[in-house]
Specification:
Layout lengths: L15 E3 L1 H7 L3 E6 L11 H14 L4 E7 L3 H13 L2 E7 L8 H8 L3 E5 L4 H14 L4 E3 L11 H12 L6 E6 L3 H13 L4 E6 L4 H19 L11 E3 L12 H14 L8 H13 L8 E6 L9 H8 L4
Parallel strand pairs: 2-10, 3-4, 3-6, 4-5, 7-8, 7-10, 8-9
Antiparallel strand pairs: 1-2
Helix pairs in contact: 1-9, 2-3, 2-6, 3-4, 6-7, 7-8, 9-10
This protein binds pyridoxal-5'-phosphate.
Pyridoxal-5'-phosphate (PLP) binds next to helix 3, strand 7 and helix 7.
Length: about 325
Protein backbone atom coordinates (compact mmCIF):
# COMPACT_ATOMS: atom_id res chain seq x y z
CA UNK A 1 0.00 0.00 0.00
CA UNK A 2 1.40 3.35 -1.02
CA UNK A 3 2.24 5.82 1.77
CA UNK A 4 0.68 9.23 1.23
CA UNK A 5 2.01 12.34 3.02
CA UNK A 6 0.19 13.30 6.19
CA UNK A 7 0.73 16.03 8.74
CA UNK A 8 -0.30 14.81 12.14
CA UNK A 9 -2.21 17.33 14.17
CA UNK A 10 -5.46 15.59 15.04
CA UNK A 11 -5.97 14.40 18.60
CA UNK A 12 -5.93 10.68 17.92
CA UNK A 13 -7.05 8.09 18.71
CA UNK A 14 -10.39 9.59 19.62
CA UNK A 15 -12.07 7.82 22.55
CA UNK A 16 -14.75 5.17 22.18
CA UNK A 17 -17.25 5.44 25.02
CA UNK A 18 -20.18 3.23 25.99
CA UNK A 19 -23.60 4.91 25.99
CA UNK A 20 -25.04 2.85 28.81
CA UNK A 21 -27.96 5.10 29.59
CA UNK A 22 -29.07 5.29 25.97
CA UNK A 23 -28.73 1.51 25.71
CA UNK A 24 -30.96 1.12 28.79
CA UNK A 25 -33.48 3.60 27.48
CA UNK A 26 -33.84 1.96 24.08
CA UNK A 27 -33.70 -1.55 25.57
CA UNK A 28 -32.42 -3.30 22.51
CA UNK A 29 -28.79 -3.10 21.53
CA UNK A 30 -25.66 -1.80 23.20
CA UNK A 31 -24.63 1.60 21.93
CA UNK A 32 -21.15 3.10 21.77
CA UNK A 33 -19.91 6.45 20.56
CA UNK A 34 -16.66 7.22 18.72
CA UNK A 35 -15.78 10.78 19.71
CA UNK A 36 -14.65 12.40 16.46
CA UNK A 37 -16.19 15.57 17.82
CA UNK A 38 -12.93 15.57 19.82
CA UNK A 39 -10.41 15.40 16.97
CA UNK A 40 -8.98 18.80 17.93
CA UNK A 41 -8.59 21.76 15.55
CA UNK A 42 -11.16 24.45 16.25
CA UNK A 43 -13.73 22.36 18.18
CA UNK A 44 -13.02 19.19 16.21
CA UNK A 45 -15.09 17.13 13.82
CA UNK A 46 -14.61 14.72 10.96
CA UNK A 47 -12.89 17.24 8.68
CA UNK A 48 -9.76 17.22 10.89
CA UNK A 49 -8.89 13.70 9.75
CA UNK A 50 -9.30 14.65 6.09
CA UNK A 51 -7.30 17.85 6.52
CA UNK A 52 -4.25 15.96 7.83
CA UNK A 53 -3.83 14.65 4.27
CA UNK A 54 -5.18 17.68 2.39
CA UNK A 55 -2.85 20.12 4.15
CA UNK A 56 0.14 17.86 3.47
CA UNK A 57 -0.80 17.88 -0.23
CA UNK A 58 -1.28 21.69 -0.29
CA UNK A 59 2.17 22.15 1.24
CA UNK A 60 3.73 19.68 -1.20
CA UNK A 61 2.27 21.71 -4.08
CA UNK A 62 3.67 24.95 -2.67
CA UNK A 63 0.21 26.46 -2.23
CA UNK A 64 -0.29 29.71 -0.31
CA UNK A 65 -4.08 29.96 -0.15
CA UNK A 66 -6.73 27.36 0.65
CA UNK A 67 -10.04 27.78 -1.11
CA UNK A 68 -13.14 25.83 -0.31
CA UNK A 69 -16.93 26.14 -0.28
CA UNK A 70 -19.90 25.19 1.82
CA UNK A 71 -23.11 26.27 3.49
CA UNK A 72 -23.21 29.28 5.80
CA UNK A 73 -22.84 27.00 8.86
CA UNK A 74 -20.33 24.67 7.21
CA UNK A 75 -18.16 22.77 9.69
CA UNK A 76 -15.82 21.89 6.85
CA UNK A 77 -15.22 25.59 6.12
CA UNK A 78 -14.61 26.40 9.79
CA UNK A 79 -12.08 23.60 10.13
CA UNK A 80 -10.37 24.48 6.84
CA UNK A 81 -10.04 28.11 8.00
CA UNK A 82 -8.49 26.87 11.25
CA UNK A 83 -6.03 24.60 9.43
CA UNK A 84 -5.10 27.55 7.18
CA UNK A 85 -4.39 29.75 10.21
CA UNK A 86 -2.37 27.06 11.92
CA UNK A 87 -0.26 26.04 8.91
CA UNK A 88 0.34 29.48 7.44
CA UNK A 89 -2.08 29.62 4.53
CA UNK A 90 -4.52 32.33 3.58
CA UNK A 91 -8.09 31.10 3.34
CA UNK A 92 -10.96 31.96 1.02
CA UNK A 93 -14.39 30.52 1.80
CA UNK A 94 -17.21 30.63 -0.75
CA UNK A 95 -20.35 30.36 1.35
CA UNK A 96 -23.93 29.71 0.31
CA UNK A 97 -26.34 31.78 2.33
CA UNK A 98 -27.65 35.18 3.22
CA UNK A 99 -24.89 37.69 4.01
CA UNK A 100 -27.37 39.61 6.16
CA UNK A 101 -27.93 36.67 8.48
CA UNK A 102 -26.71 37.23 12.03
CA UNK A 103 -23.09 36.25 12.53
CA UNK A 104 -23.10 33.26 14.88
CA UNK A 105 -22.03 29.63 15.22
CA UNK A 106 -19.53 28.46 12.61
CA UNK A 107 -19.74 31.73 10.69
CA UNK A 108 -18.56 33.64 13.76
CA UNK A 109 -15.61 31.25 14.02
CA UNK A 110 -14.79 31.72 10.30
CA UNK A 111 -14.49 35.45 10.98
CA UNK A 112 -12.39 34.94 14.10
CA UNK A 113 -10.06 32.68 12.10
CA UNK A 114 -9.51 35.45 9.57
CA UNK A 115 -11.03 33.73 6.53
CA UNK A 116 -11.97 35.85 3.53
CA UNK A 117 -15.63 35.23 2.77
CA UNK A 118 -17.23 35.36 -0.67
CA UNK A 119 -21.02 35.10 -0.66
CA UNK A 120 -22.72 32.84 -3.15
CA UNK A 121 -25.84 30.79 -3.68
CA UNK A 122 -26.63 27.18 -4.48
CA UNK A 123 -27.01 28.01 -8.19
CA UNK A 124 -23.90 30.16 -8.45
CA UNK A 125 -21.59 28.12 -6.24
CA UNK A 126 -19.55 26.33 -8.89
CA UNK A 127 -19.02 29.43 -11.00
CA UNK A 128 -18.23 31.62 -7.97
CA UNK A 129 -15.75 29.05 -6.73
CA UNK A 130 -14.04 28.95 -10.12
CA UNK A 131 -13.96 32.76 -10.24
CA UNK A 132 -12.40 32.93 -6.79
CA UNK A 133 -9.80 30.34 -7.78
CA UNK A 134 -8.94 32.08 -11.06
CA UNK A 135 -8.57 35.51 -9.54
CA UNK A 136 -6.43 34.16 -6.67
CA UNK A 137 -4.23 32.47 -9.28
CA UNK A 138 -3.86 35.68 -11.27
CA UNK A 139 -2.93 37.58 -8.14
CA UNK A 140 -0.13 35.08 -7.46
CA UNK A 141 -1.78 33.71 -4.32
CA UNK A 142 -1.16 30.08 -5.33
CA UNK A 143 -4.58 28.70 -4.46
CA UNK A 144 -5.24 25.07 -3.51
CA UNK A 145 -8.80 23.97 -4.05
CA UNK A 146 -10.34 21.72 -1.42
CA UNK A 147 -13.61 20.24 -2.70
CA UNK A 148 -16.96 20.35 -0.92
CA UNK A 149 -16.61 18.48 2.37
CA UNK A 150 -12.94 17.73 1.68
CA UNK A 151 -14.11 14.65 -0.18
CA UNK A 152 -11.57 13.69 -2.80
CA UNK A 153 -9.23 10.68 -2.84
CA UNK A 154 -6.80 12.56 -0.58
CA UNK A 155 -9.36 13.62 2.05
CA UNK A 156 -10.91 10.14 2.05
CA UNK A 157 -7.65 8.76 3.47
CA UNK A 158 -8.53 10.38 6.78
CA UNK A 159 -11.28 7.80 7.28
CA UNK A 160 -9.39 4.90 5.73
CA UNK A 161 -7.02 5.36 8.67
CA UNK A 162 -9.92 6.23 10.98
CA UNK A 163 -11.22 2.70 10.43
CA UNK A 164 -7.75 1.28 11.09
CA UNK A 165 -7.70 3.23 14.35
CA UNK A 166 -11.06 1.80 15.48
CA UNK A 167 -9.90 -1.76 14.77
CA UNK A 168 -6.65 -1.15 16.66
CA UNK A 169 -8.66 0.11 19.62
CA UNK A 170 -10.12 -3.40 19.76
CA UNK A 171 -13.67 -2.48 18.84
CA UNK A 172 -15.65 -4.57 16.38
CA UNK A 173 -19.23 -3.33 16.62
CA UNK A 174 -21.75 -5.13 14.43
CA UNK A 175 -22.96 -1.77 13.09
CA UNK A 176 -21.36 1.63 12.55
CA UNK A 177 -23.86 4.48 12.09
CA UNK A 178 -23.00 8.07 11.13
CA UNK A 179 -24.20 11.00 8.99
CA UNK A 180 -23.18 10.92 5.32
CA UNK A 181 -23.21 13.99 3.06
CA UNK A 182 -20.38 14.50 0.56
CA UNK A 183 -19.51 10.84 1.10
CA UNK A 184 -15.82 11.10 2.01
CA UNK A 185 -16.29 9.73 5.50
CA UNK A 186 -18.28 6.75 4.26
CA UNK A 187 -15.89 6.08 1.36
CA UNK A 188 -12.97 6.05 3.80
CA UNK A 189 -14.69 3.79 6.32
CA UNK A 190 -15.75 1.29 3.65
CA UNK A 191 -12.32 1.20 2.02
CA UNK A 192 -10.62 0.99 5.43
CA UNK A 193 -12.88 -1.93 6.34
CA UNK A 194 -11.79 -3.78 3.20
CA UNK A 195 -8.12 -3.06 3.75
CA UNK A 196 -7.89 -3.69 7.48
CA UNK A 197 -10.56 -6.34 7.97
CA UNK A 198 -13.71 -4.97 9.60
CA UNK A 199 -16.75 -7.07 8.73
CA UNK A 200 -19.63 -5.27 10.41
CA UNK A 201 -22.14 -3.09 8.64
CA UNK A 202 -21.33 0.54 7.84
CA UNK A 203 -24.55 2.51 7.58
CA UNK A 204 -24.58 6.14 6.48
CA UNK A 205 -27.69 8.15 7.33
CA UNK A 206 -28.05 10.52 4.39
CA UNK A 207 -28.25 14.22 5.22
CA UNK A 208 -28.75 15.76 1.76
CA UNK A 209 -28.94 13.31 -1.09
CA UNK A 210 -31.10 10.42 -2.26
CA UNK A 211 -29.55 7.01 -1.80
CA UNK A 212 -28.77 5.93 -5.40
CA UNK A 213 -27.03 9.15 -6.36
CA UNK A 214 -24.89 9.26 -3.24
CA UNK A 215 -24.01 5.56 -3.42
CA UNK A 216 -22.67 6.11 -6.93
CA UNK A 217 -20.53 9.09 -5.79
CA UNK A 218 -19.18 7.04 -2.90
CA UNK A 219 -18.38 4.08 -5.14
CA UNK A 220 -16.35 6.36 -7.42
CA UNK A 221 -14.54 7.91 -4.46
CA UNK A 222 -13.64 4.47 -3.09
CA UNK A 223 -12.32 3.32 -6.44
CA UNK A 224 -10.27 6.48 -6.99
CA UNK A 225 -8.82 6.29 -3.48
CA UNK A 226 -7.93 2.61 -3.89
CA UNK A 227 -6.15 3.54 -7.15
CA UNK A 228 -4.18 6.29 -5.44
CA UNK A 229 -3.12 3.80 -2.74
CA UNK A 230 -2.28 1.26 -5.46
CA UNK A 231 -4.45 -1.41 -3.86
CA UNK A 232 -7.01 -3.70 -5.45
CA UNK A 233 -10.35 -4.23 -3.76
CA UNK A 234 -13.63 -5.83 -4.72
CA UNK A 235 -16.76 -3.87 -3.85
CA UNK A 236 -20.00 -5.76 -3.29
CA UNK A 237 -23.45 -4.29 -3.78
CA UNK A 238 -24.14 -4.10 -0.03
CA UNK A 239 -20.81 -2.59 1.00
CA UNK A 240 -22.26 0.88 0.58
CA UNK A 241 -25.27 1.06 2.89
CA UNK A 242 -27.21 4.32 2.90
CA UNK A 243 -30.54 5.12 4.49
CA UNK A 244 -32.27 8.20 3.07
CA UNK A 245 -35.47 8.02 5.12
CA UNK A 246 -34.50 10.95 7.33
CA UNK A 247 -33.97 13.81 4.86
CA UNK A 248 -36.94 15.62 6.45
CA UNK A 249 -37.40 19.15 5.12
CA UNK A 250 -34.00 19.13 3.41
CA UNK A 251 -30.45 20.14 4.25
CA UNK A 252 -30.17 22.23 7.38
CA UNK A 253 -33.91 22.20 8.02
CA UNK A 254 -34.16 21.18 11.64
CA UNK A 255 -37.30 19.30 12.63
CA UNK A 256 -38.72 17.42 15.60
CA UNK A 257 -36.63 14.26 15.04
CA UNK A 258 -33.34 16.17 15.20
CA UNK A 259 -34.43 18.18 18.25
CA UNK A 260 -35.58 15.04 20.02
CA UNK A 261 -32.29 13.28 19.33
CA UNK A 262 -30.28 16.28 20.57
CA UNK A 263 -32.30 16.35 23.77
CA UNK A 264 -32.08 12.60 24.28
CA UNK A 265 -28.30 12.40 23.97
CA UNK A 266 -27.80 15.51 26.09
CA UNK A 267 -30.00 14.18 28.89
CA UNK A 268 -28.98 10.53 28.84
CA UNK A 269 -25.27 10.83 28.13
CA UNK A 270 -24.36 14.50 28.67
CA UNK A 271 -23.30 14.44 25.03
CA UNK A 272 -23.86 17.22 22.50
CA UNK A 273 -24.69 16.43 18.91
CA UNK A 274 -25.43 18.99 16.20
CA UNK A 275 -28.71 20.01 14.55
CA UNK A 276 -27.67 19.40 10.91
CA UNK A 277 -25.63 16.19 10.75
CA UNK A 278 -25.26 14.14 13.90
CA UNK A 279 -28.72 15.16 15.16
CA UNK A 280 -30.29 13.76 12.00
CA UNK A 281 -28.14 10.62 12.05
CA UNK A 282 -28.87 9.95 15.73
CA UNK A 283 -32.59 10.46 15.07
CA UNK A 284 -32.32 7.85 12.32
CA UNK A 285 -30.41 5.49 14.59
CA UNK A 286 -33.02 5.79 17.34
CA UNK A 287 -35.87 5.26 14.87
CA UNK A 288 -34.21 2.21 13.30
CA UNK A 289 -33.72 0.80 16.79
CA UNK A 290 -37.42 1.21 17.55
CA UNK A 291 -38.21 -0.50 14.25
CA UNK A 292 -36.14 -3.49 15.33
CA UNK A 293 -33.39 -3.17 12.72
CA UNK A 294 -30.79 -3.53 15.46
CA UNK A 295 -31.23 -6.58 17.67
CA UNK A 296 -30.24 -7.55 21.22
CA UNK A 297 -27.07 -9.17 19.92
CA UNK A 298 -25.99 -6.04 18.09
CA UNK A 299 -23.48 -3.49 19.24
CA UNK A 300 -24.03 -0.21 17.46
CA UNK A 301 -21.25 2.35 17.27
CA UNK A 302 -22.37 5.89 16.59
CA UNK A 303 -19.50 7.69 14.89
CA UNK A 304 -19.85 11.27 16.17
CA UNK A 305 -18.61 13.41 13.29
CA UNK A 306 -18.74 16.72 15.19
CA UNK A 307 -20.54 19.86 14.08
CA UNK A 308 -21.39 21.01 17.58
CA UNK A 309 -20.62 24.75 17.01
CA UNK A 310 -23.79 25.00 14.91
CA UNK A 311 -25.78 24.46 18.11
CA UNK A 312 -24.92 28.14 18.63
CA UNK A 313 -26.05 29.29 15.19
CA UNK A 314 -28.69 31.95 15.60
CA UNK A 315 -31.12 30.22 13.23
CA UNK A 316 -31.05 27.07 15.37
CA UNK A 317 -30.95 28.43 18.91
CA UNK A 318 -34.62 29.41 18.97
CA UNK A 319 -35.53 25.90 17.77
CA UNK A 320 -33.26 24.45 20.39
CA UNK A 321 -35.20 26.29 23.07
CA UNK A 322 -38.29 24.33 22.04
CA UNK A 323 -36.66 21.40 23.74
CA UNK A 324 -37.54 23.01 27.05
CA UNK A 325 -41.26 23.48 26.26
C1 LIG B 1 -19.12 17.21 6.85
C2 LIG B 1 -19.84 16.57 7.95
C3 LIG B 1 -20.42 15.30 7.80
C4 LIG B 1 -20.46 14.58 6.49
O1 LIG B 1 -19.26 13.98 6.14
P1 LIG B 1 -19.00 13.63 4.62
O2 LIG B 1 -17.63 13.08 4.60
O3 LIG B 1 -19.13 14.92 3.87
O4 LIG B 1 -20.03 12.66 4.17
C5 LIG B 1 -21.01 14.70 8.89
N1 LIG B 1 -21.06 15.33 10.08
C6 LIG B 1 -20.53 16.54 10.27
C7 LIG B 1 -20.66 17.17 11.60
C8 LIG B 1 -19.90 17.21 9.21
O5 LIG B 1 -19.41 18.43 9.40
Amino acid sequence: MKQIPRIRFAHLPTPVEPMENLSKLLQRSSFLVKRDDQTGLAFGGNKTRKLEFLIAEAKAQGAKTLITAGAIQSNHCRQTAAAAARFGFECILVLMGDPMEKVSGNLLLDHLLGAEIIWSSHEQLDSDLKKAYDSASKEGRKPFLIPFGGSNPIGVLGYVYGMKELIEQGHRPTWIVFPTASGGTQAGLVLGAKLFGYRGRILGISIIEKRELLAEQIRKLIEATADSLEVKIKLEEDDILINDDYLGGGYGVVGEPELEAIQKLARTEGLFIDPVYTGRAAAGMIDLTRKGIFTHDDSVLFWHTGGTPSIFADKYTHLMLKIFD
